[in-house]
Records
---
Amino acid sequence: MKDIKAIKGKYYIHSLISEGEHEHQDFKFAITDAAKIAHSISAFANNDGGRLLIGVKDNGNIAGVRNEEDIYVIEQAAQMYCHPPQDVKMTAFSVEGGAMVLRAEIMRAERRPVFARDIDGKFRAYYRVKDENIVAPAIMVRAWQRKQADDGCIFSLSDAETALLRYLDEWGMTTVDDYMHGAHISRETAEEIIVRLCAMDVLEFVYTGSEFKVVRAE
């Protein structure tokens, strides 16, 4: 399959499958849609990286890679449907019954956001949350973009920013709405402050199970 020689990996692949699908792993029975695979690549790249196990059903059963075209579709998704293009490292493993499972590894992007082109032609940034790829919140995308644009200049904190950091030191996390109402500032101002502090790695976004909040960066 495109010069990829399968290596023995029965027990390794079963150990990965036993983890189930999670923030850094997704099962794919087959690869047929480059746009959908681009969602996964974008989501993993915008998080802390991850891997696709191709030839594995959602229930963890091994079906094996059925077509070498899967490799081409993954490459197409990474290079033509992602902006900027992403590198995907692919390794084939032979398992029982002569079946082959393909591991596609996606690294955390050095420059975020990584956008994926959807079937409507629009580019959207995705983020991996548990076992799902979701559209990244606009404020998170703005923070990533601001980080890339910042020139590393010296900064000073405003009273509103200082108050936010003190609140987080005491309460741990907050949302834009809570910060806006608590500080008696507009949504635009609250979002701008959060974007600025996230871009400077003072704050970071965390997913609480139902929504994104901001916390002090570690």
Note: The chain has seven helices and twelve strands.
---
Amino acid sequence: MAESTQMEVETATQTAPLPAKPTFKPLKAHEMSDGKVQFRKISVPPNRYSPLKKAWLDIYTPIYDQMKVDIRMNLKARKVELKTRADTPDISNLQKSADFVHAFMLGFDIPDAISLLRMDELYVESFEIKDVKTLKGEHLSRAIGRLSGKGGKTKFAIENSTKTRIVIADTRIHILGAFTNIKVARSSLCSLIMGSPAGKVYSKLRSVSARLNE
């Protein structure tokens, strides 16, 4: 009797329809922030003020039209100010827009920086030459020269192999790309700073980029 009762319970369990999965509508930006307007401010360095004036429309259009985020230049504070709107589809659009503007301020070209708006897995990493090795005077100048190469040849080779973009601004280096690719590019740049010849770095890059492609 007990066995038949157990079998009946098991049969009922198997035939019972599963409850429908709940469907949640995506939250809008003003709902995620409790209806509060979110702000971001990005400082404009003195050397990027003129390029910003020239490229303002190229920066303004994708942020305002595509990301649905308000943007303005505060001339008194010398900062670019961003603000969410009622029709901003996603709160993350504000941070993406801020990252895009910040990348431009670091020296990246707009076609490269705009990829931060379109792809989620891209980052910007910055470090200084002194973080790797303390160099002064001519030794520092030679290290910067090794990073760029003749006519920027070394920098372009690292960028193309690792699918990244690199900006060398005096002693600061900025890398834009995916996490793994940034790691490879930074390793190559550090080797050059430490004094490795370009040929050795190229051969290592070839083997690493082949593994990345696989």
Note: Strands lie at 39-43, 69-74, 79-84, 122-128, 165-169, 172-178.
---
Amino acid sequence: MSWPADARAWMRGHPRASDVGFAVLVAIPSMLVPADAPTGIAAATPLSTLLVLTACAALVVRRRRPVAVWVVTLVVAVVAVAVQAGPTGALFPALVALYTVALLRPRRDAAVAGVVTVVAVITALGVFDDWRSPTTYIVLAWVGLAVSAGFAVSSQRAIVAAAEERAQRAEASREEEAQRRVTEERLRIARELHDVVAHHISVVNVQSGVALHLLDEQPEQARAALGHVREASRDVLAEMSSLLGVLRTNDDGTETAPAPGLCELDTLVESMRRTGLRVTVHEEGGRPSLAPIADLTAYRVVQEALTNAYKHGAGSADLRIVDSDPTVVIEVTNRVAGGAVEGSGLGLVGMRERVLASGGHLEAGPDGAGGFRVRVELPASAQAAS
């Protein structure tokens, strides 16, 4: 860091000391200004020197009381003009105080202070000297320069402050956006894990229980149940490997496996039938062709609904798919074992989030006839989804 930057940092950390030092710097030229004909300033007297020191001392509190300090220095300058019967070095502190008013106060106050300073100085010079002398015009020019400099520095500080505020808002917005993206990604990963794992783990759980129950009395059926367990565990391991591979892949163009869709619906239904769930499929209008996001959503909804029917139902489920432009309707209905559904409800939450993200609508609940129904409406095209 260079010495000017060090000096500014020290002044910001010691404002009182810097104000005292600045007042001393103003006092030196105010008292040492040459008294001769070109400047029009008369030789200093002990009283005029005391007045200069008084005005400079008032500058110590100029940043805290800018208007009061300007009034004091202006009165001292007028008195000094009367004492010396002409221009005096006491005008310099008044100009510094006027600059401070223009810097820290509204522009209207600074303009009024500038006009009052001009009127007071010209009046004093007209009464105690010749106001038509060149010194009068020099003083007027310095008054205008003080006000203009105050306005310029004030504007520059306002621009810097506004830029810093915009930078802070932009940084806060970036942090909020990053946090929002992280939250959305966590929810998406949670939905994917639930959809991928819940179906197969449910099969493993039920079929392993069946195998354990039949192991002694019906070993052949127990063997078949263990086969289903092995198949389901192999499927979940494969899907978990694919999902983790996607999570670990950078944006380097590496190819990944395509997301499942309704084109794999037959495989999904067949896997559920092998677990013992009787699935009846009704399709109207043919197998619909959906946008990629809606297609994945439809597949996951059917997978979750059939898994819930397998876990909580009475052993059967009806799947109905209707392709009616501009929407595709998917319904899964099943009888509820024991008349009540138990579970965490995370599956339904995940389904609802997926459907809403795809621009669709989901209804899930009792159908009024002792069963449970999941009904989803999805847009039949990407344009409808947007």
Note: The chain has a mean pLDDT of 78.
---
Amino acid sequence: MSEAVLEVRNLARSFEQGGVKIEVLRGVDIRIGKGEIVSLLGPSGSGKSTMLQAVGLLEGGFSGSISIDGEEVASLENDARTRIRRDHLGFVYQFHHLLPDFSAKENVVIPQLIKGATPAAADKRAAELLARLGLGHRLDHRPSQLSGGEQQRVAVARALANQPSLVLADEPTGNLDEATADLVLAEFLTLVREEGSAALIATHNERLAKKTDRLFRLHEGLLEGNKT
């Protein structure tokens, strides 16, 4: 069994709505090994995004254990959470969230500079990643000059720029037409595997989910599938 990049135990999250307690996650357990790509399948509102927010240390209010690269992170303070996100995690969302005033290459350079890379190394890494995603001729274009598929490819390159151990993707092709979504997904999976990162992909698209190494269904706050 490969070394665990992510290990979640008894993860729970509930909300109060109209005086009623709603249990979104009810003791979720999952282990993802190095280089493994896992999908989290479920309809909208099933708790997929809530789980990714927990694992990505983007929201509080959870109980349970979250270990990333062997470090328990669930109870870390804000500065330490920021360090984990910067050094160990990459994020891809349904909407690209690119910086509109910067070029495609600059959007991939910036997170590397924040981590401490030299400008020359960051520029080289960004150009290489974007070229591998078929955007070598679009490096200097701003997001508004790119198609939806191209924007999402830039977002994928940005997520992998700092060589994260784990990429968290929330409906990464949900804003694209089917043909473009298939192409971007194939490129995303190929690049993640080439980079040696693990990935957890939340989606409602069963066809997409079946292309990953393992598939889980989130049902009534619990995961159904092979967790180890």
Note: The helical segments are 48-55, 78-88, 104-115, 119-132, 148-160, 178-195, 206-209.
